[in-house]
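Supplementary Methods, section 5.1.

A reviewer requested that the exact input to the structure prediction be made available. We therefore reproduce it here, unchanged from the version used in the analyses.
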Amino acid sequence: MKTLLNILFLMILPLFPAVLLASDLEREQRWQEQVEENLFEGETLMLNDGNVDFLGIYTQAARDQPEGAVLLLHGRGVHPDWPQVISPLRTRLPEQGWTTLSLQMPVLDPQAELDAYVPLFDEALGRIEAGIDYLQEQGIERIVLLGHSMGNGMATHYLATTRDVRVKAFIGIGMSADKPQLRSVMDTAIALRKLALLPVLDVYGSDDLDLVLDSVGARFDAIRSAGSPRSQQIMLTGSDHFHDGSEAKLTAVVVDWLGVAVGRCWADNNMLAVKQRSY
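The structure derived from this sequence is encoded token-by-token as follows.
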């Protein structure tokens, strides 16, 4: 009997860290209440990743026939209507013909170290898939994944892991390539190399975080290696990691690139090549 118990213990022991490090659902609930109380544009909805319900904000395009939909993934520990980057894009892109769906990604206690988020990247997979499923249920086929900060790591992890062909392009805002030997799941450059022929837009500020600025070359090499001629890397001059005061510029860059990368005009452009440029 003792041997059997020991075997059972060894079998379930690997499951403990995943349970202990799961998203802080109480914090998610507080975020949900705050978002619902203050939301002025779009509508909240509850999605399910197969295990838990989580918040999404759906904002329809201001056109009868939208260009497509952008699925938004926020950064570390915040919510899907965060006032920096996420909320401006969530509300401005619909004005330009793109429906948006912003997801509540897994979060931890505010004091949690960066490395503590690594196990949550797998938890994020189900949430992203649920968001894509929902958009398809609305009849939207042209779906683009957009991440900011840590949302980029979760997005590229999803794309590299699933090879989901329903996603037609990826936009990363404030991406970084971290220490691959320690936490490769957070290293977007590793994942970007696996996104064969997927159009990628890499946007960063000239005054961005060091982790972002130090990995500009590594990310560009990874994007070029993936092989889509529609990919670009763009630096926003005078902007930082959160693009405060540059919301209009950021939206314009995203919308212009979407028109070339997955919009109705791209097929007519035969002179595309992977580019680096500033705006």
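The longest helix spans residues 120-137. These observations are discussed further in the main text.
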